[in-house]
Amino acid sequence: MSDLAVNPASLERARAVADAVLYEGYLLYPYRADSRKNQTRWQFGVLGPPGAAERFAGEESHLSAQCLVRCGSDAKIGVSVRFLQLQRREVEELREGRFVSVPEMTVGQQRYLAWDEAVAHDVDLGDLALRSPHAVVTEVSGAEVVEMLTDNGDIAGRVRRTRWPLRAELSVHATGVSDLLTVNVAVRNTSTTTGSSDPKTDAIRSSLLGAHVILTCANAEFVSLLEPGERTDDTEKAADEVRAASSCVHHRCFPVLAGLPGERHIVLISPIILYDYPEIAGESSGPMFDATEIDEILTLRVMAMTEDEKAMARATDPLAAEIIDRADQSTADSLGALHGTIRNGSNDRSAGLDHVPVFTEPGEDKPWWDPAVDSRVDPETDTVTICGVSVGKGSLVRVHPCRSADAQDLFFRDQVARVTMVHTDVDGGTHIGVVLVDDPAADLHDWFGRYLYFAPSELEPLGADGTSPRKESAS
């Protein structure tokens, strides 16, 4: 795609994440065609053909997103739509002069399995005038490729790879009259089905798999939808961005800033929940193509496979073979690099605190984890001061999860909670356990000790009646 004015290193980083999105769920360990888990695939970003969702045969046919951009009159936008096209791999054995479809066959030392592969596509719409509407129809042709299999010069069988044509409609248009525009992006699958007797097979053959969009811009800057208004000192512009971001609507995807942190020229519209400036972990030695990717666990799982299972996996897919080979070449150092990395999700977890408790190192002759080591540390009685208010067990607070919080924590935004304990860890960090006041199971959670945990900076102290002391004092 056009790189417009984008930093090449930033674009490379964004594309690395986009590739991970493209293949997320492509393989499910243990990466074998005979594994039941591998029979249901393509979990994320599937755009089915028209009517497939209504027939319960496939996914919805479209995705759409809105993002914000600050721009001049001559701003341009680059649009790249990326997806996988299913490719069916059939194995046919030569028997008495005719080719017969079989689940698998071995020719020499090579094993061949029937399997659904995929072909990657990147549809580049080029550089478009941002203030003009654009609608493009793109078509991807079908194909059939036959690979003959020979054994000592004699034809033993063949592999037939078939993919079916796809058709999609892409639209981009901007709305707004000032320098702050809302960019509307939509991708709709308009492919015709293949006529298979199985509706689900018919739908997946005509689906766009792992569909996502990369946007770039020139003479413009994208605005973060997660942190609108934070790039400008102009309070009026900041307020405009916050209002505009709150009105953006998305369907089956979400746009985030991508590339190098701080730059504003790339947006990734992803079917997977991401934060601004996502990146591939430096510890990852290669892609796992897995919907629940945890490199260390998957690598150890692959290393525990039998040789027969590894052979099955290698025959399943070339990408699976890469995973097996990489796991087989693992060393103690490479495995150690996958283990134990901790990253701070916030640059300043103590923001808004008047005081942060500090853990006092006990004597070397006492174990640090023993509660009796330091009687000053007691989650049942400890308190922490937040915005001038002492908060401890029984205090009421309002939950304001930070933008980098776990996605599930965001569901608790603005809810009132009751503090159950205040923990101080060995690094001096504070973690506050709470139960939600309006949760019907709050008493059970408290009894079992199943608490939600937040940093002090994510909590707003409330009075006994549930009102904010700060608001009362301001009035």
Short account of what is shown:
The chain is of the alpha+beta class.
Structural class, please? alpha+beta
Backbone CA Rg: 27 Å
Task: Say how many strands there are.
Answer: 20
**Major beta sheet summary:** 11 strands, antiparallel
N-to-C span: 55 Å
Q: What is the 3D form?
A: globular
Description of the structure:
This protein is of the alpha+beta class and 475 residues long. It folds into 2 domains: 8-83 and 115-138 and 177-332, no CATH class; 371-474, SH3 type barrels. The chain has helices at residues 8-23, 199-205, 235-247, 295-303, 307-316, 318-328, 332-337, 442-448, 469-474; strands at 62-95, 98-102, 104-107, 110-113, 115-129, 134-140, 143-151, 154-163, 166-175, 180-189, 209-223, 254-257, 266-270, 384-386, 389-391, 396-399, 416-424, 430-436, 452-454, 459-462. The strands form 4 sheets. Strands 1, 2, 5, 6, 7, 8, 9, 10, 11, 12 and 13 form an 11-stranded antiparallel β-sheet that branches. A 5-stranded antiparallel β-sheet has the order 19-18-17-16-20, with helices on one face. Strands 3-4 form a two-stranded antiparallel ribbon. A hairpin with an 8-residue loop joins strand 12 and strand 13 (266-270). Helix 4 crosses helix 6 (318-328) and helix 5 (307-316) runs antiparallel to helix 6. The longest helix is centred in the first third of the chain and has 16 residues, at 8-23.
